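Hey team,

Filing this mostly as a record. A colleague (T.K.) asked me to run one chain through the structure pipeline before their review meeting, and I want the input and output archived in the tracker in case anyone asks later how it was produced. No errors, nothing strange. Just documentation.

Input sequence:
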Amino acid sequence: MSNKDDKKTRMYIYVADVVAVAWNKDRGMLLKRLRGKKSRQKLADEIAAKGGECSHQNLKKLEYGESESVSTKVLEAVCAALDISLSDFLSTVEVTN
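Output structure:
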């Protein structure tokens, strides 16, 4: 097999066109680290205050990597409450085939 066959194709897409983001334990640990000492309930309250929806129970599932995906709407609300952009939370969205 040559190196040419090993190459992956990169395609960039607009986040507005993405309905959900695949989730894993690494992203959950990042969310927990960004939350810091703030309680999940406090973060959920801040999300609600900014017009978003994400319960403290859902935050726990995300932090423990128990969710397979998260909607971009929820993730944007979480990021807004953490005062970071979605692009700061996610590295470049990469689709491989």
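Quick notes for T.K.: The longest strand covers residues 20-22. The beta strands are 20-22, 69-71.
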